[in-house]
């Protein structure tokens, strides 16, 4: 079963076309990762799926409904998006930020309820931010700040999460921390997670489904072990690499070619020199 569908989707800005006649399906209750070179349209595609960008043609379907025909709050109750590098008003506390996730449930006559408070506290607990809820967002570390934004999306209490490069600018420790959090949300709560990632090896480790975008459309989509090959890396990223099996997870692991200090070549050269000296 699919949560999100894009049918003959064409996207762009002005006269420029970024995505052309694209068709994709997002598996329900799975982790899907969008990959592709810089400027290929991954973020544009994610924005369109969240109804932040109107298609030039085609449609995005959420739970069998064209999202262009749905009310904004109706979409926001089903799907939450975390854009790339979001900014926070100065002085806003973590608690105040996470409260913003309840906006789809507020209205002219709708007051803050026990359900709203429960959703906010649950989001803070799930992201391990309860002890930091009175801190200002701008005083947090990069990893804590990203968790605060994710907590805001969780407070929306949606079945689907869209995240545009959630690990950008984070060190390796915090990248794993964020991805583990999203993985747990998927495994424990069955949430559908769709995200853009640049690290192919991490994408393979966490994704059930990978969609590779190239030349304004889908180059390949499927399980990581089916999609990630040397041929794909060459055509999509214009990069020569070896694809091996990750020794810890059994998922595809890309080893890019290029210049650098190569211990194998160094050892071979030293061995050859040693043999020549002996001879």
UniProtKB/TrEMBL annotation:
PROSITE patterns: ABC_TRANSPORTER_1, ABC_TRANSPORTER_2. It is a peripheral membrane protein. One of its GO terms (cellular component) is plasma membrane. This is ABC-type transport system ATP-binding protein (Probable substrate iron-III-dicitrate). SMART domains: AAA. Keywords: ATP-binding, Cell membrane, Ion transport, Iron, Iron transport, Membrane, Nucleotide-binding, Transport. Residues 4-240 form the ABC transporter domain. GO terms for biological process: iron ion transport. The keyword Nucleotide-binding applies. One of its GO terms (molecular function) is ATP binding. CDD domains: ABC_Iron-Siderophores_B12_Hemin. It is found in: Cell membrane. InterPro entries: AAA+_ATPase (IPR003593), ABC_transporter-like_ATP-bd (IPR003439), ABC_transporter-like_CS (IPR017871), P-loop_NTPase (IPR027417), Siderophore_ABC-ATPase (IPR051535).
